[in-house]
Amino acid sequence: MISKRPYFQYGSNFDITVNMKRSLLSLILLITISAQAQNTISGTFYPAKDYSWLIAYRLKPGTQVYSADTAIQNGTFNLNLPENSPSGTYRLVYAIPQEEFYFDVIYNGIEDINLSFDSEQGVMFTASKENILFGTYFNEINTLEREMIAYYTNGTMDVKTYQNILKKYQETQESYEKKSEGLISNHFIKANKPYVPSDYESIQDYVRNRKNSYFDYLDLNNPVLQASGFLTDKLTNYVFTALPLGPLEKVETEKEIQANITAIVENLNGVSDTYAFHILYTLWTQSSNSGFDSTADFVYTKYLKNSSAAPANKDVIDKIEIYNRLRIGVISPEISWKDGEKEEKLSALQGSENYLLVFWSSTCGHCLKELPALHKELKDNEDIKVIAVGLENDDISWNIESRKLSNFEHAIALGKWDSEYAKIFDIHATPTYFILDKDKQIIAKPESDKEVVAFLREK
Question: What is the 3-state secondary structure (H, E, C) of the chain?
């Protein structure tokens, strides 16, 4: 089974009580400087049968560009970077979706890189001073982080133990800053410098002071850091884990998260609009994926929508607006159709506990299989009304097939994929289903007729 387990963790989790086990976002990162020779990235993947191809992208501030690709044969690969490839962050993608199945390596333009990837253990480097040093540093820092968490959560008051942890923090940081002098990894090691109290602090003071000092060594204008995923990870970690101790209601949590986003924006002062847009879009995505719709709306309406970089990122703005229009909990966009001479509208329908929108086509084989089955299954269900929207090039076959589904309301959208409803509801495949409640709010997006039936039975 293909793993998307991260290799390194950057930064630390602030909520070291209830939420101390949240995993931190992780990456292995690089910068962009010149190079003079051709080098290779080689190694192994295990289990061999799960992997067949590897693609390398060079990271740039807020984006990535294709560099090279190679086959993985019997678990072994040898990827030749193009001659004179710039040094920097190279993202190795080993499965799809690409945004989930990858890891990053440091390429300094001098070293060949050798590594082994295990679906359970992640990536380990066997040749590359940059990557080995980088990985060892973050592993040791994260070990110390766990020691500090354990100290506070165990309730011990042993000051000597506490001071030993502080000493190890200090010595580890100083040691790796010195070892990495002149290396790419030095930028990240310095930027990751943890907060180390001068003496014992209560958990409340420790958490507060860590948050207040978070940006002390984090230069958001550093092009080396921008040409990597490091800043994205650090800032996302701050936003979603720099929260007050103790349990919070969702509304309270989102209020704190939004305050953290405001702090991020203040620290983005001087950063290019393009890169700031990238950071904020990342925060919007994380908010949406976490079910924090209020926070996602906050980021979009206050920062992204009116950003000077918005026109150049129209595809992103369009994606957000589609999400907002069709997400769970919102009122469905309007649909209208004619029933004889009478004009009907979705918003005007009444009397049903649920409404089912089905986007189909009379020339779609899957539709001609699923819709009759669904029609039969829901025939005697008076609590649900079905509105079937045909995405068609003409009405010839639609007239024939729609008559067979007499219990459905029928609307037609000529132009098929380019029709108004295909665009409004972001339809890319048929059939597509939306289940609404009695108030026409979207409550589910089943993948098939069987999932529709199962959802309605479980309600």
Answer: CCCCCCCCCCCCCCCCCCCCCCCCCCCCCCCCECCCCCCEEEEEEECHHHCCEEEEEEEECCEEEEEEEEECECCEEEEECCCCCCEEEEEEECCCCCCCCEEEEEECCCCCEEEEEECCCEEEEEECHHHHHHHHHHHHHHHHHHHHHHHHHCCCCCHHHHHHHHHHHHHHHHHHHHHCCCCCHHHHHHHCCCCCCCCCCCHHHHHHHHHHCCCCCCCCCCHHHHCCCHHHHHHHHHHHHCCCCCCCCHHHHHHHHHHHHHHHHHHCCCCCHHHHHHHHHHHHHHHHHCCCHHHHHHHHHHHHCCCCCCHHHHHHHHHHHHHHHHCCCCECCCCEEEECCEEEEHHHCCCCCEEEEEEECCCCHHHHHHHHHHHHHHCCCCCEEEEEEEEECCCHHHHHHHHCCCCCEEEEEECHHHCHHHHHCCCCCCCEEEEEECCCEEEECCCCHHHHHHHHHHC
Looking at residue 147, its pLDDT comes to 95
Give per-residue pLDDT as tens, 36-66: 457 999 999 999 999 999 999 999 999 999 9
Q: Which two tokens stand for residue 373?
A: 């089955």
User: Side by side, which strands form the sheet with 122-127?
Assistant: 76-80, 40-46, 113-118, 122-127
Structure tokens at 264: 């991020």
- What's the pLDDT score for residue 371? 97
CB contact burial 185-210 (16+ within 10 A = b; e otherwise): bbbbbbbbbbbbeeeebeeeebbbeb
Instruction: Give the pair of three-digit tokens for residue 65.
Output: 């560009």
pLDDT at 439: 97
What is the Cα–Cα distance from 120 to 140, expressed in whole angstroms?
20
pTM: 0.84
**Count of residues making up the chain:** 459
CB neighbourhood size of 40 (10 A)? 16
pLDDT at 164: 96
Could you tell me which residues come within 8 angstroms of residue 79 by beta carbon, excluding any fewer than 6 positions away? 40, 41, 42, 54, 56, 68, 69, 70, 92
Name residues of the chain where pLDDT drops below 50. Answer: 1-36
Whether the bond between 86 and the residue before it is cis, its omega within 30 degrees of 0, is no
Token pair for 38? 């051709």
Reported as a single tens digit per residue, the pLDDT across 166-194 is 999 999 999 999 999 999 999 999 999 99
pLDDT of residue 37: 57
User: What is the token pair recorded at 296?
Assistant: 């996602």
Cα(303)–Cα(373) distance, rounded to whole angstroms?
47
Rounded CA gap, 215 and 210, in Å? Answer: 10
